[in-house]
Specification:
The chain is 41% helix and 13% strand. The chain is an alpha/beta fold. Strand 11, helix 13 and strand 12 form a beta-alpha-beta unit. Bound molecules: uridine-5'-diphosphate (UDP).
């Protein structure tokens, strides 16, 4: 590394949903802006997908990955501790490890970027006098909610879920009570307090990078930049907002594995891909209804299945990929695999999602609406059936269906009730077979173009990332 080369350290929390966008951001900065990147990845050792991903990504271009060893937090949590709280605690306990890595660096980073769960590193950045930025890997709308929630906390009495009116974030579209992000659902839960703190920590950074783009969320981005009431919570007066997305993994298909070979044999845009992110799980009853609904739809589909869980819908989050053992799939309806053998491919636990969504046979994606999955779908022009499960996914689902018109949803919210087989079959057929489905696909393709424009030279996200790099250089 020559001494004039910028050095940026990026801190990532565990989980594929966090590691993926951090690695993509690191690659972008290293490849296109000649920046030396050090990623401090807080690991858990419990996810085979995560371990594999880190192994493959290390040493590429100017990227060095330093794993921050997992810390035992079992004495700080119990079975009721939500994933949001667990992640905040994991990061808190890893702070000494992060500090010592930064302290020992011979070339101190010119900037520190932290992911959504790593804002507690703020004092470390301040101690070493390093400019500090958050990478918010989802929408501008969820960012507005995160930073403004400290005001809601003071203004709202009682539970948010009991409110009669939607929540009004200044300058942004209103947030329906049904769509409120999980951490705000129960005020007495520790994750509520952690979420409010996270929003306050966000406001103390020097700027925020968001994985969205101007055309996608023009109104909200404008509010984040100019709305006095919304900006009044920010501690830095010139607080910059950098919409740099959609950053996502791109892959070259080097080997045509079983799934790709199966897709090769299908008709153009005829297959529905069904997957619920790195850790989403369904209840046993919902799993049965989904299997029946997919079978009755008689559409071709690829389904990434993992064993049902009657606990939280994100219960596999820190264990994604599992041990990749081909399970007995005994939780699927009797005879399902035999009856559907000509229309479906079942992938246990983990699939190469980016490759699948890029395949021309895929014409729809039933998704939990995690933001990485969402942009992987949209940047391939694939329309979606939204099935939000946890975190901020209900907000994403509403934006995709009601605002952008690139997705449809079952009439019942999966987080509230079991979606029955007839409803599922109807929704799948609507997307894959009807005129309405075709119109939605057209809109998804337009959004793909809009994303490409934003990222291309002179596009809004391209300019935004250049501005960010300039900002670090001038500090
Ligand atoms: N993913 C994958 N294969 C799977 C499940 C997930 O490659 O079987 C990847 C997916 O492509 C995405 C990430 O894991 O990049 C999941 O992130 P997302 O934000 O969609 O959801 P989360 O897992 O954080 O809920």
């Amino acid at each position: 590394m020559d001494s004039s080369q910028l050095h940026v350290a990026i801190v990532s929390s565990p989980g594929m949903g966090h590691l993926v966008p951090i690695l993509v951001l690191g690659n972008q900065l290293a490849s296109y802006h000649n920046i030396k990147i050090t990623i401090l990845a807080i690991t858990t050792n419990s996810s085979s997908a995560e371990t594999e991903f880190l192994k493959k990504s290390n040493g590429k271009k100017s990227i060095e990955i330093i794993p921050i060893p997992s810390v035992d937090i079992s004495h700080l949590i119990d079975s009721s501790t939500k994933i949001f709280t667990r992640l905040r605690i994991l990061v808190r306990e890893a702070l000494p490890g992060i500090r010592s890595v930064i302290a020992s660096m011979t070339h101190r980073p010119d900037a520190l970027i932290v992911d959504i769960f790593c804002t507690q590193t703020l004092p470390i950045a301040e101690e070493f006098n390093i400019p500090k930025y958050v990478y918010h890997p989802t929408t501008a709308w969820t960012l507005a909610l995160a930073i403004y929630s400290q005001v809601f906390d003071k203004e709202i009495e009682g539970e948010y879920v009991d409110l009669k009116e939607p929540l009004k974030i200044p300058g942004c579209k209103a947030l329906r009570v049904d769509d409120v992000a999980d951490p705000l659902l129960v005020r007495s839960d520790q994750q509520y307090e952690e979420y409010i703190k996270l929003g306050m920590e966000y406001a103390s950074f020097d700027g925020i990078l968001i994985n969205t783009w101007e055309d996608l969320e023009a109104e909200t981005i404008k509010a984040l930049r100019n709305n006095d009431k919304l900006r009044s919570v920010l501690k830095v007066p010139d607080f910059p907002i950098y919409p740099i997305g959609p950053l996502r993994r791109t892959v070259e298909i080097t080997e045509r594995d079983e799934v790709i070979q199966w897709l090769d044999k299908q008709n153009h845009e005829s297959v529905l891909f069904v997957s619920f992110g790195s850790g989403g799980t369904l209840s046993s009853q919902q799993m049965i209804e989904l299997a029946w609904g997919l079978e009755l739809s008689q559409q071709k589909f690829v389904w990434v299945v993992r064993p049902p869980s009657d606990g939280d819908a994100d219960s596999a989050y820190l264990n994604s990929g599992g041990n990749n053992i081909r399970g007995t799939l005994e939780y699927l309806p009797e005879g399902f695999l035999t009856r559907t053998k000509d229309i479906c491919l079942i992938v246990p636990m983990w699939a190469k999602q980016v490759e699948i969504l890029a395949h021309s046979s895929v014409g729809g994606f039933m998704s939990h609406c995690g933001w990485n999955s969402t942009i992987e779908s949209l940047t391939n022009g694939v329309p979606m059936i939204v099935w939000p499960l946890h975190a901020e996914q209900k907000m994403n689902a509403t934006m995709l269906t009601e605002e952008l018109g690139v997705a449809i949803r079952p009439a019942i919210l999966p987080t509230k009730k079991i979606v029955k087989r007839d409803e599922i079959q109807g929704t799948v057929r609507m997307l894959m077979q009807t005129r309405e489905g075709k119109d939605i696909r057209e809109k998804a393709k337009k959004l793909k173009m809009s994303a490409e424009n934003a990222l291309s030279e002179g596009g809004s996200s391209y300019n935004s990332i250049c501005e960010f790099v300039k900002d670090i250089r001038t500090r």
